[in-house]
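[#protein-structures] MJ: dropping DNA-binding protein here for a structure pass
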Amino acid sequence: MTKHPGPVENLQQTATEVTLGDDLLRGADEIARFMFGDAKHRRKVYYLTGEAPRGMPHFKMGSVICARKSTLLNWIAQQERFTPGE
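AK: finished. structure tokens for DNA-binding protein:
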């Protein structure tokens, strides 16, 4: 007999999915809106995910650049604390 998830199991799974969905940015436009306030800055995202010496944390799903909001906020905080030469 197949066990069907109860209400608590459904709620936990849904909460996890919503959290991940809320934290995930898909595409340079979404990342640019989050980081710079406007999608027209998507070229900066391409630079930060490619050529920049201290590149932005990201990953790809197929050919789409993706990032987590929480990871980007942590990375920005690290950049604020970074002292050259250390």
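MJ: nice. Strands lie at 24-26, 59-61, 64-68.
AK: one more thing. The radius of gyration is 17 Å.
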